[in-house]
């Protein structure tokens, strides 16, 4: 391990009527710097994960990070966009910068402000993460329509899994109720998630509202360091491995019943870390829709293809199961402010590994993994993390 997270910050995710992109960035980044005990003057580079795609008028926003502290003036600050994986993309750029030897401390921030835009605008903006040329059937359904198509392909192959999706939703809402940073903190329970109702309508068949991540505002930040920052760090979480893999975008070139890009990135990350699934204490994975989490069980090798339901039905992935998946509540409950999500997942993992996860804490964590994706497993980022001190 050569690269580490030595400090982190996180706003609560949700509808922030009194905050804008700038204030969300400042809150998370300032907290991360303070947490790391790093002076702004020591930061060599800044990366900002941000998607936008028309949701917010402030498109050019990497320079807003300078509002955190005037000593950040004249440092290189760059926005990174890779759909729903923009946060991990920014983090990977920060790690690449460290690896180049040109930086010793890098500040990475992820941010999104989604709730100012109307529902139709948000739906259209999120479709910026799809293959607009031919993949869209019903644009009014937004990205839920894209994952509904994936769910239908999966159901056609393996039977109706609506109840399985409801179980995943119920698990993540249960976990999210223990996460003070989560957008949705209601423990809805299986019956609510499994029943179509006025409070849980079908959004894009077969997906109900509880199968979708919410539209959220929020920011998360980390301070990355090379080994020179370890001695003075209060505590640190290192990258045992981290992998990026890009999949074909057009659905026509894909088997819609599996997430091959996710499987590839995950396999490589595990190999590079020299670990297997049984070595992991938890995983934070990209459950933008419950069908995604189900298919990720299969992509990461928890079960063979078509048998992902066993992971949730047999309790393997609950907070006290053999591999807790999304102890933070995941995107489903924590929220999914697109550009912030990848950074947030790494912050949640860092909190687990350092024993700072409060009511979300899993027992005696040794190693954790993060899987963040943009599009339908098009931009795939996987990392294996370990406490370094
Ligand atoms: N899960 C559970 N409850 C949700 C929810 C969700 N995803 N989204 C909103 N709610 C709740 C709200 O908290 C609110 O509850 P309240 O009445 O008790 O206050 C209620 O549902 C209505 O909220 P509202 O914002 O009006 O819901 P909506 O029907 O307009 O939006 C979705 C719901 C699912 C359509 C919207 O959250 C969405 O589009 N999600 C997908 C976002 C997306 O595609 N992200 C990119 C993924 S790759």
From TrEMBL:
Keyword set, alphabetical order: Transferase
One Pfam entry name: Thiolase_N
Any coiled-coil regions, as ranges: none
Domain Thiolase C-terminal as annotated: residue spans: 252-387
The keyword Coiled coil appears for this protein: no
Residue span(s) of domain Thiolase N-terminal: 10-226
NCBIfam families assigned: PRK07516.1
GO molecular function, one term: acetyl-CoA C-acyltransferase activity
Protein name according to UniProt: Acetyl-CoA C-acetyltransferase
């Amino acid at each position: 391990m050569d690269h580490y997270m030595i400090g982190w910050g996180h706003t609560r995710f949700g509808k922030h009527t009194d905050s804008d992109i700038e204030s969300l960035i400042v809150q998370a980044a300032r907290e991360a710097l303070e947490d790391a005990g790093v002076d702004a003057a020591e930061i060599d580079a800044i990366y900002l994960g941000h998607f936008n795609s028309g949701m917010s008028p402030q498109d050019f926003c990497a320079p807003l990070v300078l509002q955190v502290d005037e000593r950040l003036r004249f440092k290189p600050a760059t926005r990174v966009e890779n759909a729903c994986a923009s946060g991990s993309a920014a983090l990977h750029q920060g790690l690449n910068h460290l690896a180049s030897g040109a930086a010793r401390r890098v500040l990475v921030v992820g941010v999104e402000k989604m709730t100012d835009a109307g529902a139709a605008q948000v739906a259209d903006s999120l479709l910026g993460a799809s293959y607009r040329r031919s993949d869209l059937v019903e644009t009014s359904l937004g990205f839920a329509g894209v994952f509904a198509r994936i769910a239908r392909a999966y159901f056609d192959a393996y039977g109706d899994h609506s109840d399985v999706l409801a179980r995943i939703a119920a698990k993540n809402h249960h976990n999210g109720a223990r996460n003070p940073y989560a957008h949705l903190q209601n423990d809805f329970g299986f019956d609510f998630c499994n029943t179509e109702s006025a409070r849980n309508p079908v959004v894009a068949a077969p997906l109900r509202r509880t199968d979708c991540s919410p539209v959220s505002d929020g920011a998360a930040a980390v301070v990355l360091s090379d080994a020179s920052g370890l001695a003075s760090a209060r505590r640190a979480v290192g990258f045992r491995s981290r992998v990026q893999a890009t999949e074909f975008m057009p659905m026509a070139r894909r088997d819609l019943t599996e997430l091959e890009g996710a499987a590839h990135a995950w396999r490589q990350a595990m190999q590079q870390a020299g670990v297997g699934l049984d070595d992991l204490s938890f995983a934070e994975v990209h459950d933008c829709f419950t069908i995604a989490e189900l298919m990720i069980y299969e992509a990461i090798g928890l079960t063979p293809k078509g048998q992902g339901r066993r992971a949730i039905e047999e309790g393997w992935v609950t907070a006290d199961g053999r591999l807790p998946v999304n102890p933070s509540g995941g995107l489903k409950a924590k929220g999914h402010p697109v550009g912030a999500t990848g950074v947030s997942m790494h912050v949640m993992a860092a909190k687990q590994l350092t024993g700072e996860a409060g009511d979300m804490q899993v027992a005696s964590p040794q190693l954790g993994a993060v899987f963040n994706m943009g599009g339908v497993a098009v931009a795939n980022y996987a990392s294996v993390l370990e406490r370094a001190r």
